[in-house]
Amino acid sequence: MTVMTDYILPVKSRGLHDEMIAFGIMTALLLIVPLTGVYPYFVMQALCFALLACAFNLLIGYGGLLSFGHAMFLGTAGYVSGHALKVWGFSPELGIVAGTAAAGALAVVTGSVAIRRQGIYFAMITLALSQLLYFIYLQATFTHGEDGIQGIPQGYMFGLLNLANPTILYYIVLACFLFGFLVIFRAINSPFGEVLKSTRENEQRAISLGYKTDQYKLLAFILSGTLAGFAGSLKVFVAQNASLTDVHWSMSGEIVLMTLVGGLGTVFGPVIGAFVIIAMQQYLAGFGQWVTVIQGVIFASCVLTFRRGIAGEISHRFGISL
Amino acid sequence: MQALYAQLLVGLINGSFYALLSLGLAVIFGMLNIVNFAHGALYMMGAFCAYFLLNIAGIGYWPALVIAPIAVGIFGMLLERTLLKWLAGLDHLYGMLLTFGIALIVQGVFQNYFGSSGLPYAIPDELKGGMNLGFMFLPVYRGWVVVFSLVVCLATWFLIERTRLGAYLRAATENPTLVRAFGINVPRMITLTYGLGVGLAALAGVLSAPINQVRPLMGADLIIVVFAVVVIGGMGSIMGSIITGFALGVIEGLTKYFYPEASNTVVFVLMVLVLLVKPTGLTGRAA
After folding, report:
1. Which end of chain B is more exposed for a tag (fewer CB within 10 A), N or C?
2. Chain A: residues touching B (Cβ < 8 Å)
């Protein structure tokens, strides 16, 4: 049996070098976006999903754990941030902290349940847990059920930066995205990341070497959930609402799809995948339910013929590490 | 008391669907090592098949009970031959992702043509009305669904655990290479197994059509509950799936009576409790 990320062969000696260059190119491209006339809210939304997909990828790509419930972190952070900003009148930075912390706490609880099983069971458990939260949020009063929390104020970051200004908001979202991206990048290149990868490859052996693999998996889950929540909190400022869509299983599926298209277990793949899928949704918005069908087709064809994803395929063809 | 019995009956009916679906999932997983995410969509196709048969061809409930599972089963076998078979030897998770994609396609296509609202499907004349059991009023159709599902579940158990064909099947699950060396066509058995699992889902769909209306997304939420059922019961045992399915349906029904707010979530909460107490599931071997 091959592990899901066997297709990505890391080029060890140059890996970090290539990734640094790619990071530089990505940052430069994203910095000049407001000058290009591209609709900034589109890029901001894509950045939120890119961070979300990167967080998801930390689990599947490096820990071998497929979470089919990552929408629960997105949605929870969105609701908590939205409620804190609108009802409690929190400042933006505190709102982000509150949402992220809530997602982190949720990850501690759900993670300690989910990591008790592996493989397909892990996927089913995370899916069921997120559905549990979906029903809780559906009935809770502070989420306003089907309506969601609407018209969330954007406010002034640190009392100075007006988030209603698209350019300012863009650079703040970008800074947050890069921060989250670097946290993940640091984690996978740390001793912690190495142990996580060894757990994915051969858990029994890692245990026999004295690593408490459950603790590593739980820590990865918490890190992933917290960063996914961070993305969810940021998204509140972009979309100015928090709704049930963000907790629904179809959202979890979209996160999986973005990462799959971009390349499971690659550093930049989730970012590429998020931009591809968000762009596709924008352009195909007029096709109604056919978007779901197209997503399904992409899902199936990626699994059957394109398992390396975009980034994985590039690194495979050109021998560079992405 | 009347309300309690009524909810218990609803619970038993839901339990029938859980049992039929988790049974199919277990059979498919045993043979193909695939968690069939498309199971909910195929359940929905079973219901739609019955609806089409009635409204286009004028074929009623009883023939549909046979035709729909076979038709959807054949569709499933085509899926297995054209798509799923390429996943042999890959990580189990790819099977889940591929079938998730298939579910999106099937549900999306149906949603396009039929929207999200429900289409009515009438209860057949023979099963209309109800019986007064003294302590409660039993709608005949609902009683029929429970009894018939139970019979089908037990028949499937018998087929797999007590017949020669079932013995081949179980042997091929353990060691396909060795079974092939005995001259048994394992790939064909895999296809037929997938067809059987899918047929069970479609049968559940036909049974549910008069109760739950025919909707493109009728299977989408159900499959997630069935996943939780599978986590609780484990996919290692056929009888385990059946018993867990019915038991969880009943517990859900009781919750609807005693604490309705939790009726949507009780199965998931139970799953968490089971994972905390006995991580391998109630009947399961560790996976």
Report:
1. N
2. 1-4, 66, 68, 113, 116-121, 123-125, 127-129, 131-132, 135-136, 138-139, 249, 253, 256, 260, 288-293, 295-300, 302-304, 307
pLDDT in tens, B19-74: 999 999 999 998 888 999 999 999 999 999 999 999 999 999 999 999 999 999 99
Q: Over the stretch A132-168, which tens digit does the pLDDT of each residue have?
A: 999 999 999 999 988 899 999 998 989 889 999 999 9
Task: Report how far residue A190's alpha carbon sits from residue A183's, in angstroms, rounded to the nearest whole number.
Answer: 11
Name which of A2, A121, A288 is nearest B90 (Cβ-Cβ): A2
The pLDDT tens digits for A253-275 are: 999 999 999 999 999 999 999 99
Q: Is residue B21 within 8 angstroms of chain A, CB to CB?
A: no
C-beta atoms of A125 and B276 within 8 A: no
Q: Please say if the pLDDT value at position A1 is more than 50.
A: no
Residues in chain A: 322
The per-residue pLDDT for range A15-42, each reduced to its tens digit, is 788 899 999 999 999 999 888 888 889 9
**Domains, chain A, with CATH or none:** 12-318 (1.10.3470)
Residues of A in contact with B287 (CB under 8 A): 117-121
| Contact (Cβ atoms closer than 8 angstroms) between residue A224 and residue A66 | no
Find the closest chain B residue to A293 by CA distance: B105
Q: Does B285 touch chain A (CB under 8 A)?
A: no
